[in-house]
Amino acid sequence: MKVFLTGASGFVGREIGKRLLEAGHEVRALVHSNSSLPSGMQAVQGDILNRESLVAAMQGCDAVVHLVGIIREAPRKGVTFQRMHVEGTQNVVDAAIEAGAQRFLQMSALGARAGAASPYHKSKWAAEEYVRNSGLDWTVFRPSVIYGPGDGFVTLLAGVLKQAPAFPIFGHGRFPLSPVARHDVAEGFVRALERPETAGQAYEVGGPEQIPYRDVIQGIGRALGKRRVLTFSVPVALVRPVVSLLEGFSFFPITSSMLTMLLEGNACDAGRFAADFDLQLTRFQSGIGYVRD
Question: Which domains does the chain have, with CATH numbers?
Answer without folding.
Answer: 2-143+181-205+269-281 (3.40.50.720)
